[in-house]
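>> received
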Amino acid sequence: MGRKRSDPKELVDQAQQHAVRGELAEAEAAYGQALTAAPDHVGALAGLGVLLVERGKAEQAVELLERAREIAPEFAPIHAALCNAYMETGSDEQALASAEMSAKLETTSTIPLMQLARLHILAGRNLEAIGAVRRVLRRDPTHAEALYLRAGLSGDGSFGVGAPPPDLIADLFDRYARTYDDHLVQRLKYSLPEKLAPMLGEPTGTWKIMDLGCGTGLAGVVLRPFASELIGGDLSFKMLIRARARGIY
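>> returned
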């Protein structure tokens, strides 16, 4: 006999698949169904909490992630997710405590320590940020992002500063993804794709187009009528989720 549709694990899997396709409302609904079936399902609580941060519902996310933490207090990713949720609500002290706990529980990965370093940077605590970066480098002396940040934060030219590593760029735009369209179009009045479109002639729907650095797909909306095949690429996974949700690539 197969699993019933109300199986929380199956619903969490469905939610994750929706999220990867950029179907955030559908993902939220599937997580909600999973929690209806199993209110204390840690995967559903954590997954929905992370998703709600992405959807600009950080206060709700904090409630869910706090519940998840009560159930699984030793699970480092929940503390990392709580850090992000608290950052969105402007709760710096709680975010800092969650980041420190994540780093304490996860003793080998550099990910929670990098989260801690970024949190200090955003708050303007350079000395603390340098300390977190040094902790990263003790775990991984070749960590490209940490080496880049150490050089920039210390102001010591002996370290040398090259191009920012791809992971740093990806993280920056992952954090920017949710507000990217509003900030770029509404506040900065970005209109370059619309201005370029008349230069391309009449749309034939026959071109094969690669939109590199596609972001959330603002240019893709204009390019779609010209293309038989439109492919978007970006370093930021969260940008790509939003581009995919447009249904044009």
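>> The radius of gyration is 21 Å.
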